Amino acid sequence: MKLTFLGAAGEVTGSCLRVEADDVRFLVDCGMFQGGRDAGARNRRAYARELGRVDFVLLTHAHIDHCGLLPRFAWPRHGAGLPAIYCTKPTADLVPVMLADSAFVQSRGAARRGGRRATAEAPPLYTADDVRRLATRLAAMPYGIEFRPHPQVAVRLHNAGHIVGAACAEIRLFDGGRRRTLLASGDLGEDSALLVRDRDPPPPCDVLVVESTYGDRNHRTLADTEAELVEVLHDVLQQRRGNVIVPAFALGRAQEFLVLLYRLAMAGRIHVPLVFVDSPLALQAAEVTFAHLDAIDEEAAAFHRAARDRRLPFTLRYTESVEDSMFLNSIRSGALIIAASGMCEAGRVRHHLRHNLPRRECAVLFTGFQAAGTLGRRIVDGARAVPLFGEQVAVNASVHTLGGLSAHAGQDSLMDWLRAVPRRPRAVFINHGEPLAAHTLSARLAKELKWSPTIAEPDAEYEA
Ligand SMILES: [Zn+2]
Question: What is the C-alpha to C-alpha distance for residues 162 and 37, in angstroms, rounded to an integer?
Answer without folding.
Answer: 28
